[in-house]
Amino acid sequence: MKELLEKPGFLAPSGTLGADVSYLLALIFTVLFLIAWGFAKKAQGTRHHNLILISMVSMVVYFCAYYYARQLGVLSFEGEEGFGGSREAYDNIFIPVLTTHLILVTLGLVLSFYMLVQGFRASEKINGDFVLKTGNLAVRAKTFKTVMLSILVVWGLNQLFLTAVRHASIGASIAWALIFGTVALVVSLEKLIEKGLPDGARRHRILGRVTMIIYGLILCTSTATYLMLYVIYPMK
Ligand code: HEM
Predict the structure, then answer these.
(1) Which has fewest Cβ within 10 Å: 29, 79, 85, 94?
(2) How far away, in angstroms, is 199 Cα from ligand 1 center?
(3) Is residue 153 part of a domain?
(4) Phi-psi region at 95: left, alpha or beta (left = phi > 0; alpha = psi -120 to 50)
(5) Is 162 part of any domain?
């Protein structure tokens, strides 16, 4: 698989097949999300919901397959060896763009899951079409406690599996703890968000727009990273 991904690409002279396919898919997913935004703007709630679901499921499948295939060995994580520019360009341009990209991807991923759940909570089906419900939308104290407890239990079971069955490293346990910690943090943040934006429909529109803008920025930073690695500063 690794050999296949490292074969010459089709977008830029120095690009690899893995990088080109990954960039093209990132482009397709962003365009799908932006079309879904267009549906929402035209008040076509069901088409918006369907397209968001299809794009999210395919994006997650792709992410898992791609990172599994490359073992997170994205060139950029491997230090300077994939970058053909000067040390100054690497430190002052490449690394800041890549860091911004990774921060935006993390934020975008967290917001996607949040928005997906929020979308279902904030809307209802009227005559077969999804519409946003106006009015206060708050998690009940009991539901909040149950969700937090479930996160704790799933984390505990996963930790048990990691240590007893997979004999995983401490690094893996820390990584999982951070993932579960982030989920718990997002759930707790919901209480704060509810105070600032109590109306569920307004919350969905405002945070949805923020999420869509982040998707757009992710595409800009991934385009810049691709161009730097394979067009502007390719390996000699
Ligand atoms: C990643 C997930 C999602 C994002 C980023 C998102 C984003 C948005 C945005 C930006 C709008 C407002 C459009 C505008 O006025 O500018 C919107 C409206 C809407 N969304 Fe979502 N959404 C997501 C998921 C969902 C889901 C899962 C549902 C349904 C279960 C849903 C149902 C709706 C509905 C019904 C509207 C109102 C359309 C209208 O104005 O009639 N959304 N969404």
Answers:
(1) 79
(2) 14
(3) no
(4) alpha
(5) no
Ligand 1 pocket: which of 32, 47, 48 to mutate (most atoms within 8 A of CB): 48
Which residue's C-alpha comes closest to atom 15 of ligand 1? 41
Residues 188, 53 contacting (CB under 8 angstroms): no
State in Å: Cα 195 to ligand 1 middle.
20
Long-range Cβ pairs for the range 21-28 (8 Å, 24+):
22/66, 23/222, 23/223, 23/226, 25/62, 26/218, 26/219, 26/222, 27/219
Our measurement of the distance from residue 75's CA atom to the centroid of its chain's CA atoms, rounded to an integer in Å, reads 19
Please report the pLDDT score of residue 80 as a whole number.
Answer: 65
Tens-place pLDDT, residues 9-56: 899 888 888 889 889 998 999 999 999 999 999 999 999 999 999 999
What mean pLDDT, rounded, does the chain reach? 89
- Domain span at residue 14 reads 2-137+198-232
Lowest-pLDDT range of 72-86, 180-194, 213-227 = 72-86
Number of domains in the chain: 1
Q: Return the residue whose CA atom lies nearest to atom 28 of ligand 1.
A: 119
The residue to which tokens 């759930």 are assigned:
187
The reply to whether 184 falls in a domain is: no
Quote the DSSP letter at residue 134.
P
Rounded mean pLDDT of 101-109? 90
Span from the CA of 185 to the centroid of ligand 1 (angstroms): 23
